[in-house]
Amino acid sequence: MLVLASSHARAETVADFYKGRQVNLIVGYGPGGGYDVYARLMARHLGKYIPGNPAIIVQNMPGAGSLRSVNYLANAAPRDGTVIATFARDMPLIGIVGNPNARFDARKLTWLGSSSSYGNDAYLLFTRVDAQVRSIADANRPNGPPLVLGGTGEGASGNDVSTVLRDALGLNLKLIVGYPDSNALFLAVDRNELDGRCVGLSAVQSSHPQWLRPGSGMHVLVQFGRSTRHPDFPDVPTARELAMNAAARALIQLAEIPYTLSRPFAAPPGVPEDRAMALQAAFQAVHRDAQYLDEAGRLKIDVSPIGSEEVRRAIERIAGAPPELLDYMKKLLAESKG
User: What is each CA distance from 19 to 12, 24, 45, 72, 331, in whole angstroms?
Assistant: First the structure.
């Protein structure tokens, strides 16, 4: 009886804490991009599964490819369970390789999970069909014109993937960074300021679907974040297929680990255990919610969730990579911030 009473009291404590409160969901990017779409969808459903049913309020905090938001989460956000965040999938890798601007340890964050493990997604190199570089063969020409791509701040997936593709596949790429968000990048390509960009399929489907229509003036040269070709792009090779040698393939495989936690959600370190468990359970429950799944289907975004333990295992795989590979990745990522 005492055990049951104690358990009941703890459950009431979580519900009492959240009742009438607001939980801020920080998005490390501006409105309208892929991470923002996932965050706002999550915000519409998460509160009903947290004891006490708090209101979930989305707050955009763009900066440095979402590094600003993770630093805030780890160092300044309240640790009481009233703040959660979603940010670039590359952030754990950025932290592990020792980026001087990364003031966090990904292993200490309170992970909720990831809405996507890239089960039905792919990271794609989209280019304009009227660009000077129109194929992988063109991009491999050492004396040919570079393929001009765009990126946001450090840690952004598009930047990192572009740099990895350059080194692992020997592509002649020029990366222009500093665009404020994903929508600015779409616009820059449409205006012919850039030849293309690396971006997730789900982000294109939800935020810029015109690129997928016949006659769009865009095509895909390579897909990343997958060991096999996406069924919608059976004629487009994966980066692993194009790797120049075993070392290049190992680099690609390390860089692809973050795609296991493609749409990550976390709370700060040190959240009380009962509230952390409540947030983790609520996160999982949302992905079984019929209304959430219906909305996700209409938004055409990938839902292949993993829980907190799977996220932690992916992070440990990154941390356990050979030191020489992590050092090489550190140098590549330093270049990609511009």
Answer: 10, 14, 16, 25, 47
CA atoms within 13 A on the CB side of 256: 23
Distance CA 131, CA 145 (A): 10
Residues 31, 43, 17: CA angle, nearest 5 degrees: 130
Is residue 188 within 8 A of residue 179, CB to CB? The reply is yes
Q: For every one of its 338 residues, what pLDDT tens digit does the chain have, with 9 covering 90 and above?
A: 545 544 444 456 999 999 999 999 999 999 988 899 999 999 999 999 999 999 999 999 998 889 999 999 999 999 999 999 999 998 999 999 988 999 999 999 999 999 999 988 999 999 999 999 999 999 999 889 999 999 886 555 667 888 899 999 999 999 998 888 888 999 999 999 999 999 999 889 988 999 999 999 999 999 999 999 999 999 999 999 999 999 999 999 999 999 999 999 999 999 999 999 999 999 999 999 999 999 999 998 899 999 999 999 999 999 999 999 999 888 877 766 54
Query: Which residues face 147 on adjacent strands?
Result: 173
Q: Is 219 exposed, middle or buried (0-12, 13-18, 19+ CB in 10 A)?
A: middle
| Residue 79 Cα distances to 23, 56, 245, 333, angstroms | 12, 16, 46, 30
Residue 300 to residue 1: CA distance in whole angstroms: 49
